[in-house]
Design a protein that fits this description.
CATH topology: Nuclear Transport Factor 2, Chain: A
Helix content: 25-40%
Oligomer: single chain
Strand order of the largest sheet: 2-1-6-5-4-3
Number of strands: 6
Number of domains: 1
CATH architecture: Roll
Distance between the termini: 44 Å
Shape: globular
Largest sheet: 6 strands, mixed
Strand content: 35-45%
Length: about 130
């Protein structure tokens, strides 16, 4: 397993277990996270974002299904699961559980994660949490 794949595994384990110190140890100070809707910049801001979801009570989990690495890029195909228990993307909390396919692209610099890009493979998250 490449060093970047090992670092990615540490990142996902830290995120799933809410180990913010461990997570901070594998990302750059200018770490950024973006997805189809939002953009967050800086290690502190991104970690506060992740912490905030746990304070809100989101019991999410990232099940990493496949990891591919080449050079400074690691691609993780995953299933994001959780319960919709706070406002998300303008949809009030429904309490519904969700399981959504997502692709994460991690960009590395000098052995640390510099950028996390979340690419949702379909609009199922919004559909699942907004069902009536």
């Amino acid at each position: 397993m490449s060093d970047n794949k090992k670092t990615a595994a540490i990142f996902w384990n830290a995120l799933n277990n809410h180990d913010w110190e461990k997570l901070a140890s594998v990302v750059t100070p200018d770490f950024q996270h973006d997805n189809d809707i939002d953009y967050f910049y800086g290690r502190g801001e991104v970690i506060e974002l992740f912490k905030g979801t746990t304070v809100e009570g989101l019991d999410y989990y990232q099940q990493i299904d496949r990891v591919t690495a080449e050079g400074d890029i690691v691609v993780c195909e995953a299933t994001w699961t959780g319960n919709h228990i706070f406002d998300m993307w303008g949809v009030p909390a429904t309490g519904r559980s969700f399981a959504v396919p997502v692709v994460y692209i991690l960009e590395f610099k000098d052995g640390f994660i510099k950028r996390l890009r979340s690419v949702y493979r379909d609009r199922r998250l919004e559909q699942e949490v907004s069902k009536t």
